[in-house]
Design a protein that fits this description.
Elements (H helix, E strand, L loop, with lengths): L2 H21 L11 E3 L11 H12 L9 E3 L11 E6 L8 H12 L3 E6 L7 H13 L6 E2 L27 E5 L2 E7 L3 H5 L15 H21 L3 H4 L2 H8 L1
Parallel strand pairs: 1-2, 1-3, 3-4, 4-7
Antiparallel strand pairs: 5-6, 6-7
Helix pairs in contact: 2-6
Length: 249
């Protein structure tokens, strides 16, 4: 083979390799698609929230996301395809059936993650009172408890020291734990209300009392939650590695 032909062949091959990352697409099963739990109440009070969160994840992190969340029923056989589930509501949550409770329990015990988000700002009644009742049925041995401020959830991507959401009903998150892993995370602050953005780019709800900084914290918290749902505690020590190495040098 002449040198000129050889160089032409190598240049063509190199060009193909350079273009490969752009044209190679991940299979749909490798994308993070959030499953939004359907129930007999108002299960989708913030229809654009998860679409916006997925977009933010794709822009801010290396997580590849699906186009939109997928409505799921707790009893469906494909529930395991959604490592991150989202349960929201505006008003009281009707009781789940025993098979639904069993399916959700199995899902979170085998590594699945559930984010629960109260859209109505309730505290003791409404969605809050009823979802606490249902979560107690799901994991009776692990009651909801405050997530400590030093938990890896608050440093899985961003370092956070306060809460965000459409409202600030509680300055903390609560969780149910399975084998030292947060399996169910609960916010009373309407994270979805802070994430929701209309087709024209306008935010659908104002955030009170903190305004836009409070919304940004809610967005960063959403990113951290998704990162934790996928990676759990891997960053508990790694987040401090640059500081440790700097001190050693």
């Amino acid at each position: 083979m002449r040198r000129r032909a050889f160089l032409r062949m190598m240049a063509t091959a190199a060009g193909g390799l350079a273009l490969a990352p752009r044209v190679r697409a991940l299979p749909a099963t490798s994308l993070l698609t959030i499953g939004q739990v359907q129930h007999a109440g108002r299960w989708n009070p913030r229809p654009t929230a998860l679409r916006r969160l997925s977009w933010e994840l794709s822009q801010r992190t290396s997580i590849e996301t699906g186009a939109d969340a997928v409505p799921v029923r707790l009893g469906q056989p494909t529930l395991h395809r959604y490592p991150m589930l989202y349960l929201s509501g505006d008003g009281a949550l009707p009781p789940f059936s025993e098979p639904e409770i069993a399916a959700l329990r199995r899902h979170v015990q085998y590594g699945g993650f559930l984010l629960v988000d109260a859209a109505d700002g309730s505290d003791g009644g409404g969605f809050d009172g009823s979802v606490r009742r249902e979560l107690a049925r799901v994991l009776p041995a692990s009651p909801l408890a405050r997530v400590p401020r030093e938990h890896v959830l608050y440093k899985s991507f961003y370092l956070l020291d306060h809460q965000g959401g459409r409202l600030l009903v509680k300055p903390w998150l609560e969780a149910q734990v399975v084998n030292a892993r947060v399996a169910v995370l609960y916010s009373q602050n309407d994270l979805g209300g802070a994430w929701a953005r209309g087709a024209l780019g306008d935010w659908e709800y104002s955030c009170t009392p903190g305004g836009e900084p409070q919304r940004e914290v809610a967005m960063r918290l959403g990113v951290n939650i998704a990162m934790y749902a996928l990676c759990t505690d891997y960053k508990d020590d790694a987040v401090h590695l640059p500081f440790i190495m700097r001190r050693r040098s």
